[in-house]
Design brief:
CATH topology: Rossmann fold
Number of domains: 1
CATH superfamily: P-loop containing nucleotide triphosphate hydrolases
Order of helices and strands: EEHEEHH
CATH class: Alpha Beta
Radius of gyration: 14 Å
Strand content: 25-35%
Structural class: alpha+beta
Strand order of the largest sheet: 2-1-3-4
Shape: globular
Number of helices: 3
Number of strands: 4
Length: about 100
C-alpha cells in the first residue's frame, strides 16, 4: 500500500465479558474510499467504535488521521462523521449537548 495510513490498528483485541469481539486485528487503510464488509457479529461496529474511542480495546493500539485513539479521541471524533447503528438519543439531553458530549 502506498502513502501513509489514515487508519491503523496494531494487534487490537476487544473483549466484552466472555465475548471476544476483535482478536489481534492488524490493519492499515490508505486514503480513499474504504468499505468494511463482513457477516453479522464479525466485529465491524466494534472496530468503528474502538477507532472513535467509544470502546476501549483490551490490548493493542490504534490511530486515525495520525492521532492516537487512546490519547486523543475527542480530536478524532471532531474530524470524523459517524452514524451509530442504533438510536443514540440520551433522555434529557438536547441535540447541542449531545454533539458536545460526543466530541
Amino acid at each position: 500500500m502506498s502513502g501513509e495510513a489514515v487508519v491503523q490498528l496494531d494487534d487490537v483485541t476487544v473483549i466484552y465479558g466472555k465475548n471476544r469481539a476483535l482478536q489481534n486485528v492488524n490493519a492499515r487503510f490508505a486514503p480513499g474510499a474504504v468499505g468494511l464488509l463482513g457477516p453479522n457479529g464479525a466485529g465491524k461496529s466494534t472496530m468503528l467504535k474502538a477507532l472513535l474511542g467509544f470502546v476501549k480495546p483490551t490490548q493493542g493500539g490504534m490511530s486515525v488521521l495520525g492521532l492516537d485513539v487512546a490519547a486523543r479521541p475527542l480530536e478524532i471524533r471532531a474530524r470524523i462523521g459517524y452514524m451509530p447503528e442504533s438510536d443514540a438519543h440520551i433522555p434529557g439531553m438536547n441535540a447541542v449537548t449531545f454533539v458536545a458530549y460526543c466530541g
